[in-house]
């Protein structure tokens, strides 16, 4: 009996030690960033330029701008949690989204891609507001479409709940980052110890702009069911596109870009109505 008690004490000590390590290192795990400034000249984005920004707390940010053609919208883009703008898969997404003349304004969060500081949920929201302010001043809020990828879906939803956007696009969204983390660490009281929870489920009801949700059914990072559940919580007009063969980062290869263009055209003409759902094979 004494041996069993000692084993339980050791197990508890090890659990608490592991929990302490997770708590201390959680932001390093959540934001696997590359702080190096990516070379915009090698991205093969016609007309692209860097735009310096300053967040409300003084952090200096690096944004990429691809100017729109006449009559085209501007995607205010918020990236996922990994790497920087030098990632080939991210640059390919930027090229695909802008090759028809659609504009792009994408900000490197603090700590990413040459931006100063270290990422936190509060800080990233400040970065989003700085990007919005600059883009709205250049192009007008009526031309801005918020686009969030993975982690960025929670960023753009919070922004869309605060400021006017002509439409919102979510690629691989979550209910909250806490819900995602709970699936990775099922025996950890995530909601008690996680600092940055990006609770999209709590803010999406305040978003009134036309909404497009894109999600792959084989997403191994953010479960498809979370994106679907978030869509169900959203206000109309809204559109949900599922990709049965889609994983977390390969939706452009599955046909997401034509769906984005169709949605942008429909949103501009008032053609998004009610709740629509479609599967793209």
UniProtKB/TrEMBL annotation:
Classification via Pfam families: Abhydrolase_1
Domain AB hydrolase-1: 73-173
Annotated InterPro entries: AB_hydrolase_1 (IPR000073), AB_hydrolase_fold (IPR029058)
SUPFAM superfamilies, per the entry: alpha/beta-Hydrolases
Source organism of the structure: Bosea vaviloviae
Name the record gives this protein: AB hydrolase-1 domain-containing protein
């Amino acid at each position: 009996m004494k041996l069993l008690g000692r084993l339980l004490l050791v197990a508890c000590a090890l659990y608490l030690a592991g929990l302490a390590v997770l708590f201390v290192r959680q932001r390093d795990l959540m934001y696997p960033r590359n702080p190096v400034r990516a070379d915009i000249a090698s991205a093969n984005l016609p007309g692209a330029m860097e735009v310096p920004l300053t967040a409300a707390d003084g952090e200096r940010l690096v944004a990429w701008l691809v100017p729109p053609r006449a009559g085209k919208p501007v995607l205010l883009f918020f990236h996922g949690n990994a790497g920087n703008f030098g990632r080939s898969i991210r640059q390919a997404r930027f090229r695909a989204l802008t090759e028809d003349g659609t504009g792009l304004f994408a900000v490197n969060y603090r700590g990413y891609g040459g931006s100063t500081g270290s990422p936190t949920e509060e800080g990233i929201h400040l970065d989003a507001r700085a990007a919005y302010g600059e883009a709205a001043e250049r192009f007008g809020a009526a031309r801005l479409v918020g686009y969030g990828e993975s982690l960025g879906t929670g960023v753009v939803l919070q922004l869309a709940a605060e400021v006017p956007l002509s439409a919102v696009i979510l690629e691989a969204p979550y209910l909250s980052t806490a819900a995602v983390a709970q699936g990775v660490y099922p025996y950890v009281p995530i909601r008690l110890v996680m600092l940055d929870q990006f609770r999209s489920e709590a803010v999406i009801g305040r978003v009134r702009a036309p909404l497009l949700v894109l999600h792959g059914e084989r997403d191994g990072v953010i479960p498809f069911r979370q994106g679907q559940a978030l869509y169900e919580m959203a206000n109309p007009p809204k559109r949900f596109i599922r990709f049965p063969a889609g994983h977390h980062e390969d939706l452009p290869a599955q046909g997401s870009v034509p769906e984005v263009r169709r949605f942008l055209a429909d949103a501009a003409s008032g053609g998004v109505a009610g709740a629509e759902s479609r599967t793209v094979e």
